[in-house]
# Entry
Amino acid sequence: MTTDAAPETRSFEADVARLLHLMVHAVYSDKDVFLRELISNAADACEKLRYELLSDPSLTGEDAGQPRITVTLDADARQLTVEDNGIGMSEVDLVEALGTIARSGTKAFMDRVAAAKEGEGAQLIGQFGVGFYSAFMVADRVDVFSRRAGSGAAAHWSSDGLGTYSVQLVEPSAAPARGTRIILHLKEDAASYTEPHATQRIITAQSGHVAVPIFLKDKPDAEARQIADGVALWTRPKSEITAEEYTDFYRSAAGQFDEPALTLHYRAEGLHEYSVLAFLPQMRPFDLFDPDRSGRMKLYVRRVFITDEAEILPRYLRFMRGLVDSNDLPLNVSREMIQESPVLSAIQKGVTSRVLAELEKLASKDVDAYRAFWENFGAVLKEGLYEDFARREALLGLARFRSTASGEGWRSLADYVGAIKDNQTAIYYATGSDLDRLASSPQLEGFRARGIEVLLLTDQVDSFWVTAGIDYQGKPFKSVTQGLADLSLIPLADGHGAAAPASEEVGGFIAYVKAMLGDEVADVRVSERLTESAVCLVAPDNAMDRQLEKLLAGAGRLDAAAKPVLEINPRHELIGRLSALAEDSALREDAARLLLDEARIADGELPSDPRAFSARLARVIGQAAG
Ligand code: ADP
Ligand code: MG
# Structure
């Protein structure tokens, strides 16, 4: 097959162009990571081929050799080449893989970079793991020659990383017999990567534990020497593996750049045999809240990589990285059938329970580390409270909360129940988006006055699990903005006086307000929960929590919000004075409507009719001043 067609020049996708610009101009100090990225891609390509060979052994083509990665140095030409005999890429694959960014979380990453201060963007690059494009940190031109396994055609991709790239079909002899050759034309200041000892040290340190052997050629015509054995780290005994080795493996296999906060390496024996190597990251991955993102645990069967889509861990543990290597799944099973396999579901159960148990251990033995974990991933773990009924107890035990008693710290439900008041029958919570505003909402007053702790829930997910009918040690969760507060059985703390019953006058005023507001509210009633404010809004008994209602309405998932109940504090001085007004006073009507708007504003809403609101306010102020 001859192919002399002129190269086709294409522009990078906008996101790639931005990323490349960052990379070319970055002063990111740790440029060595480009080697880790290229070697990890080469290893992935070999592992993909190993899997495809199971069903089609003819894919080896002319290259019958074992999987291998070869790095070749050429000081004279200032070039570094990374070659693998893996799955390879066709012309179309090259355009798709090296012209776009498929990686989830890219958008979140780009937004962070755009918002970052001068100089900080470069640090972020390291955290995101830029993959193939990191080659442009050290090279001013990159050539890729590739041949897809089983194909007779070879293709050449080339770019200077400045906005465009070219692709063209080439003579098969220009590419490896199978797999991919990536040639970096090194920048002047990156010439040191052609120095054999330094480069070998970098490769073995960063990538010494990938599951494919690595060879190094000091010069193009030198003998290739093996510098990494390709023995998968997880197959070695735990006692022989150092913390650095685990970290390097975590970084190269999981594409993370931090240290693992927790490393889990064990072998399950018995009914099913499998090895687990899993890591809890210290930093939040950029794609944590990406709706498409499920897990990042890879499935191997007897050292052969099968898939990273087996959902070994539930979604609420999607921050975990690592792999499971099964001994008893059949190798020739298709990816689709694996999903249905009872062996896989046994593995899923086992690994999930183990991860939760390790988190429990961490919580009891290293409070600071657990706190850091919770601050990063608590919002994700809480999804499990409504997704995983069977493990709800364990998850409730792991959960931590801000509350009216927590200060800057975190409270567990055990802490909460341990400090519960006599006659208190529920675990009270308030939900909202802003912690400070929540802590000062009027609905909390009566609870505070009685020393009753209230959980302050500010994660979006909170509104969902609290309404899932959950209880903890027999105590239901109850919103402070929902239904009757029923606090009368719990005495006020010292200094709050006694809760005197509402006078007849106040009763009359409340009846008036109710008649006045008519359809705008579900009810107007005396409040148990207010001690300092005059009014507040709550949800009617058995109605949806008001914050959840707002959330659903905001997402367009609710047609009409339920009408709120206006609660009035009969002990408040203002209410006393309004109640004493003559029945025909014009002020009474303005006051009734202003009270409702005041309660709305305290909830972060707007008055229902801003013009009428200002007119009323002006009248009332005018009277007071006149
Ligand atoms: P990631 O590895 O996270 O997918 P990269 O930027 O490192 O992202 O690589 C982009 C894509 O390019 C890979 O997903 C793969 O499809 C392709 N690719 C890169 N290097 C190779 C290689 N040596 N062999 C085959 N495909 C490759
Ligand atoms: Mg990669």
In short: The chain has 21 helices and 22 strands. The two ends are 98 Å apart (CA to CA).
